[in-house]
Write a structure and sequence with these properties.
Layout: E1 2-14, H1 19-28, E2 32-45, E3 50-54, H2 61-69, E4 76-81, H3 90-96, E5 97-101, H4 113-124, H5 128-142, H6 157-169, E6 175-179, H7 187-204, E7 207-211, H8 215-221, E8 224-229, E9 232-238, H9 239-246, E10 249-257, E11 268-273, E12 276-282, H10 288-298, E13 300-307, H11 311-321
Parallel strand pairs: 3-7, 3-8, 5-6, 6-7
Antiparallel strand pairs: 1-2, 1-4, 8-9, 10-12, 10-13, 11-12
The chain binds adenosine-5'-triphosphate and magnesium ion (MG).
Magnesium ion is lined by residues 61-62, 179.
């Protein structure tokens, strides 16, 4: 459905020179700095997948999305979305994709929300019946009726995001690109958005590519994750697998009876509050049962909890150290 082959995007940024002389000089000698935003990446996505596209700020996520939607032309490489080369056939591509940029609305700010929907209906030439049905469905699931007649500019962020995602789906696209669709939303609104995305994927079979900085989005929505950093793909695969590889650290919290606990080798005391100790260990080195048995030999344990590392922690480690 989507194939990306060795694409790169280089931005040429005009180098400004200082002072009056510099400004004049710049008029005759243009100097550019090359910024490689996306560096030779390849992947393919099958129909019906939900793929999380994640990476730190400036990694190249939005640039990739913009190339897939046809807004930007790749410097090199090949992209096909359902056989269409996005930047070459922008209109044809637009008919088969939906796009939401969480940072910026795609709707007309001064118009009542519903008027934006009407405009999109005209632009995409959506048949009346299909339009009515989709609008009705989205209004019900997303609770759009509370603000359909409010100008987009006056919507709260949560309302605006709901309006944007509804708008992106009115023409029944096969692929949905979501660039930070939960940014700035509160917990309840995030959940609602995730539920909607899942439903759209399941009920309508829409393929979803989603960028986010919120790892819960990925955990709740995506089986597969593509991790990108400095324009290069660092990981492409199952979320579960990466958790397995990197998630071998465990935190054991123990409440001891009595105070001077003997701790085992290979564990790291990371926090201590009276008789409660937080110990970090790695499953490669010792199993949880073994460790507990060792500690219990010399100390009396009142209570304990074992925690797996959060996905955030794992991703941060990968950003810091690489794979
Ligand atoms: N139009 C542009 N002109 C010049 N440089 C750009 C342009 N757009 C993006 N860049 C640069 O390309 C790099 C990748 O940017 P991009 O917006 O793709 O990152 P991102 O992964 O979406 O980051 P974020 O998580 O902050 O949204 C950055 O260094 C950015 O400054
Ligand atoms: Mg971005």
């Amino acid at each position: 459905m989507i194939t990306v082959k060795n694409i790169s995007k280089i931005f040429y940024i005009n180098k400004r020179q200082e002072g009056m002389l510099g400004a004049i000089r710049s008029m005759f000698f243009r100097e550019y700095i090359e910024k490689i935003a996306v560096n030779d990446i390849s992947f393919s996505i099958s129909p019906g997948e939900i793929v999380g596209y994640i990476g730190p700020n400036g990694a190249g996520k939005s640039t990739t999305i913009k190339m897939l939607t046809g807004i930007l032309v790749p410097t090199s490489g090949e992209i096909r979305v359902n056989g269409v080369i996005p930047y070459r056939e922008r209109q044809k591509n637009a008919r088969q994709i939906g796009v939401v940029f969480g940072q910026r609305t795609q709707l007309w700010g001064d118009l009542p929300t519903v008027d934006s929907f009407e405009l999109l209906k005209q632009i995409y030439q959506i048949p009346e019946k299909k339009y009515r049905k989709n609008l009705e469905t989205f209004t019900e699931i997303l609770g759009l009726d509370e603000f359909l007649n409010t100008p987009v500019r006056q919507l709260s962020l949560g309302q605006r995001m709901r309006a944007d995602i509804a708008a992106s789906l009115l023409h029944d696209p096969a692929v949905l690109f979501l660039d930070e669709p939960t940014i700035g939303l509160d917990v309840v609104a995030k959940d609602r958005m995730r539920k909607f995305i899942r439903e759209v994927n399941k009920e309508r079979g829409v393929t979803v590519i989603l960028t986010t900085h919120d790892m819960s989005d990925i955990e709740k929505l995506c089986k597969r994750m593509i991790l990108i950093d400095k324009g290069k793909i660092m990981y492409d695969g199952e979320l579960a697998k990466i958790k397995e590889v990197f998630g071998r650290d465990r935190i054991l919290t123990i409440d001891f009876e009595g105070d001077v606990p003997f701790l085992e080798k290979g564990v790291q005391l990371i926090r201590s509050e009276g008789n409660r100790k937080w110990l970090k260990f790695n499953l490669e080195e010792i199993s949880t049962a073994q460790l507990l048995a060792e500690i219990a030999k010399k100390n009396e344990i009142k209570d304990f909890i074992i925690q797996e590392p959060e996905i955030d922690y794992i991703i941060r480690k990968i950003y810091e150290r690489g794979l």
